[in-house]
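quick one: flavin-adenine dinucleotide bound model?
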Amino acid sequence: MTLAQSTETLAAGLRGDFIQAGDPEYDSARAVHNAMIDRRPRFIVRPVDTADVIAAVNFAREEGLILSVRGGGHSVPGFGTNDGGIVIDLKRMKGTRVDPQKRTVTAQGGCTWGDVNHATEPFGLHTPGGVVSTTGIGGLGLGGGIGHLTRPFGLVVDNIVSADVVLADGTSVVANENENPDLYWALRGGGGNFGVVTSFELRLHELPAVYAGPIVWPLEKTAEVMKFYAEFIDNAPDELNGIFAFLVVPPGDPFPEELHNKNMCAAVLCYTGPIDQGEMAVRPLAEFGPPAFKHLGPMPFPALQSIFDPIAPPGQFNYWKADFVSDLTAPIIEGHAKFGPGTPNIFSGVHIFATSGAAARVPKDATAWSYRDAKFSHVIHAQEWDASIEERHKKWVADYWNALHPHAAGGAYVNFMMDEGEDRIAASYRDNYPRLKETKRRYDPANLFRVNQNIKP
Ligand code: FAD
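yep, here:
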């Protein structure tokens, strides 16, 4: 069969969409979150079910096409697209089902965190996710998953109960503790290396509301606040999560006008224990300094999950660099105090996620995520609409990262990295890397799934 014939067969057999260059939808269909990535795949398939996914995987393998799998399209290095190959975009696979007895949600691979929060909120149940509601559960969940519930309930990978996976040979299998346990292990942190996850089963936790919100301090207090924060969050109960940040205060609610567009440092807290104990749990930090402003109170979890959405719009130029750090040591705090204040605009900044608490108690070989001993994972990110200032912003990120990296733990969270080469991937999986390579050899020996933080077979 010629490529034209097999393409026609694929397109005719799909229940979902088949898009190629020249189609009216092509330009919007090829776009991903990061505008720096401008690639032109030959075909884009939007499956509606597992049968469509199998057909597209078989087609890619048989035709020798480079294959990208897209969940929410948020990968900053642009792994959700490619030049000249095929994209399987899961955006039409958004089915969810909550099982309140079992306390799980089954969510198809094209869901975003907003879709999952929407499905589980009426049951008073939630699962850990990322901090922006439009990010895909697929990429975020398979790479690790850090957010507002990391300390209380662990990483996203710690809450994956089971996954349905279409493998490189076109078979669809289940991966969980009992079925294909090696694949289940590798999926939880190994990213999109092992197949297309058409459906996730995620563990849910009772969470009728959270006590949460931001606290901001003037920059002159950076060093003393960070030092206090490091100890505070380390000694806090698991129920309290924290993300430390450098930011330019967005000009709008809830921030008072005098702080608008000012460079400041901040912490975003989330307490998942009894709401009436929230105020007491956050008080030591909320009173330290004192802060220039705080906006803490009870709220439904989905409200917290979308507070960053306005400063993470699609279509901006994004450049990110990241590392794990064992702790907020003196040189790390010094580096942040020097470069954090240079945050260029309201979309950019530094997020220092706490990865302690429940996430740290999982043994480092229990899933592919190795850095259970790193207390923090930081990401320095520049985002802007205007491509002409890209180089200046990239320099800020690179200088910042270079200053911190010698004092960091060695690897980084794979989902916060750009396309940085094999050594960096190996350093990020550390002692779990050989087992990941072995699993890759078993499930994808020809490396069909290679547009990702690639684990070469
Ligand atoms: P995509 O670009 O669609 O996919 C990324 C990778 O995952 C690709 O390699 C793709 O092949 C693979 N993939 C996606 N879905 C599947 C699937 N169903 N089966 C197999 N492979 C799949 N990370 C955090 O941990 N916490 C955060 O709070 C957080 N916030 C973010 C906010 C923004 C605005 C952005 C841009 C990113 C954020 N990230 C965060 C990083 C995020 O985890 C990664 O960008 C992740 O890759 C996004 O997943 P996605 O499905 O949206 O991306």
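The mean pLDDT is 97.
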